[in-house]
Design goal:
Distance between the termini: 82 Å
Strand content: 15-25%
Shape: globular
Radius of gyration: 26 Å
Structural class: alpha/beta
Number of domains: 3
Bound molecules: thymidine-5'-diphosphate, magnesium ion
CATH topology of the largest domain: Rossmann fold
Number of helices: 12
CATH superfamily of the largest domain: P-loop containing nucleotide triphosphate hydrolases
Largest sheet: 9 strands, mixed
CATH architecture of the largest domain: 3-Layer(aba) Sandwich
Number of strands: 20
Helix content: 25-40%
CATH class of the largest domain: Alpha Beta
Amino acid sequence: MSRRTTLFACSACGHESPKWHGRCPCCGEWNTLVEEIRPARSGGVGGRRSARAVRPVPLADVEAPRVERLRTGIGELDRVLGGGLVPGSLVLIGGSPGIGKSTLTSGALGKLAASGRSVLYVSGEESAAQVKLRAERLGAAALSVPIVAETDLETVLATIAGERPDACVVDSVQVLYDPALSGSPGSVGQVREVAGRLMRVAKERGVAVILVGHVTKEGAIAGPRVLEHLVDCVLSFEGERERTYRTLRALKNRFGSTSEVGVFEMHERGLVEVADASARFVTEATRAPGSVVLCAMEGSRPLLVEVQALVAPSELVPPRRVANGVDRNRLALVLAVLARHGGVSLGASDVFVSVAGGVRVDEPGADLAIALALASAAKGVALGGETPLAAFGELGLTGELRHVGHADRRIAEAAKFGLRSVVHPDERTRTLRQALRSLVGGIGARAA
Ligand code: TYD
Ligand code: MG
């Protein structure tokens, strides 16, 4: 009898089951289980193989060699990585089509090559000629990167093992496939196998591997979650395609913080780092009613971004709530607190909130700026004076303003760009009502 097992694996979460289910018993998604055939393994768990116990070692005595990181020379990328690529590690970079994943990774390899590192670009999606066209736009460094256009996993592995580059990009992990496995490229089994085998080569040969990954409509990296568990670092490249700004953030990082964000801008000649993003966003701020500058923290870096709000009478029940760049639930909370504790009730209005530049802010410190922008839009009163008004602080459910981290750095960043009025939680401003009263005299003065 041939020793093969048939398994059903969930393409959303990677859960395996011997039986097919219409709905994954693990993650609850519908129609995600796909059949996989595997050669059966022998030996294994349960004490069938006699195993030798090992002696645990105190962590203090563990030898951890200091590895030198590969600096890509793209400052924003290096910072998000935690100081550069770690040799032997696997980095997954996800993002929607056309966002600039190939541009960023080929640019990084180009810079590494220019600094004397050996590199390799594996393109499974585009032909070598297509990649060349892009590289021509990016300049001489990008053109010096050696490329193989290949989708067969074994060939790719053998090439990496033979070339032993310092850094290698695989674009994309979903198109490589192992013909020995059943599923088509991009299926659970394939993606897991591809990533697992690449990881082994990376570790054995000390190659820093960057995997480019596709993103599904919902924004998750296509393929099983196991991919994210396997790699050392998951980066997400975001932004709206029509806008030029792109943000790079770490969702997982075994070698650094996950709160760093890199800002880029897409030009005709590739991605340009926006090292001073605050300057951009502040000069672009409109100062019209509905506009407030938020002093945000993106990881270790303060960032000033303009929050805009529009409030208009609604024909709809329930009215529209549209949030761009801020979480919908945060917006709902801010609207509720505004109505209950700020005397600004928007139950009969359509409400639009957006962070200018296509940036996403994901921190409670954005609450106050959103609330002020909404109040300002609702009353048609512009805030601030000669310079735009800046704000930060979290809203509590009872209408109080709560402190958020790095107040001094946020204020300093605002000062750096000439923003003199910054509303934030302090002795004088303890509640949303006080903040509103001091700004748009009258708003919130009504209710007790
Ligand atoms: P690309 O890096 O191929 O995106 P991804 O690999 O994430 O799918 O390119 C993104 C877009 O950027 C593409 O539509 C063309 C555009 N682009 C520029 O505007 N300038 C450039 O210099 C390059 C290389 C691309
Ligand atoms: Mg691409």
